[in-house]
Amino acid sequence: MSKKPTPVKGQPLKGMRILVGRARHQAGVLSAELRRLGATVVEIPFIEIRKPRSFRPLDTALTNLAGYDWLILTSVNGVEAMWERMKKRRLSNSVLSHLHIAAIGPATRKAIEQRGSAVDVVPKQYVAESVVRSLKNRVKGKRVLLVRAKLARDVIPEELRRAGARVDVVEAYETVVPQGSRGRLQATLKHAGKRPHVVTFTSSSTVRNFVELLGGKRARDRALAGIRMASIGPVTSATLREFAFSVDISAKEFTIPGLVQAIVAYGG
User: Domain of 154?
Assistant: First the structure.
């Protein structure tokens, strides 16, 4: 890998190649900001969002929303999937009016508010553990609906049940490995003119899928020599370390703007 580029005033990431692995429809905001700051951005999705195999659990929960006290949404994808399903079921926001709503972070809150519903709780840190800390004294004896991805961590339901809540978990979408990215990723890493200085990771799923796209450990280690890993937050960082990656760049605020700031700090 070439040496870290010299920063340029107004474009501190000039000369830096950054690989963005967000799902294709979500890469735009991160990529646009990195480009504005001078980076050359390569987009190869490590993750693909798909509908769940069955909408029956979500449909049942939506039909029975009157029986819940709290709704928790942990991603923009979950918000999009839930409101799309409400539209299909011809349900208006009035079915949510009695609910307290918690969002895991500002992007999720914004997505909910854009759809016309108010958010009562956003934790100080945008991870599951902070959601639990924000809610555990408010949910005893309450019914909680958690809308999330398939195979997400169980911290929220387990800890809120321990706090006395009755928690139902429904899957609104699932994340899969985009097989079309395998050849593109491997070719990019082998090409001296395209090889990134930094790879960004915005969730544990992006880490796991990246590893799968690369193939075996020996091929992975050879392909990634000298490349820096940038993580959006502590859960993603823990997953990187689980796969024996170093966490070279870590966001202080666990958001896309926070990740960009961390990359700028590294680049500067």
Answer: 50-175
Residue 237 · residue 250 · CB < 8 Å: yes
pTM over 0.85: no
Domain end (from 139, 157, 175): 175
List pLDDT tens digits, range 200-221: 999 888 999 999 999 866 556 6
Q: What are phi and psi of 207, to 5 degrees?
A: -65, -50
Task: Taking the CA atoms of 13, 16, 17 and 19 in sequence, report the sign of the dihedral they define.
Answer: negative
Beta sheet of 166-176, edge-to-edge order? 48-50, 166-176, 143-149, 70-73, 100-103
Asked if 5 and 265 touch (Cβ cutoff 8 Å), the reply is no
- Domain end, chosen from 155, 175, 195, is at 175
203 within a domain of the structure (yes/no): yes
Distance CA 191, CA 36 (A): 24
Pairing of strands 48-50, 166-176: antiparallel
154-171: average pLDDT? 93
- Please, which residues have CB within 8 angstroms of residue 206's CB and are 6 or more apart in sequence? 21, 22, 46, 47, 236
Pairing of strands 143-149, 166-176: parallel
Whether residues 79 and 23 share a domain: the answer is no
Question: Strand, coil or helix: what is 208?
Answer: helix
DSSP 230-246: EESSHHHHHHHHHTT--
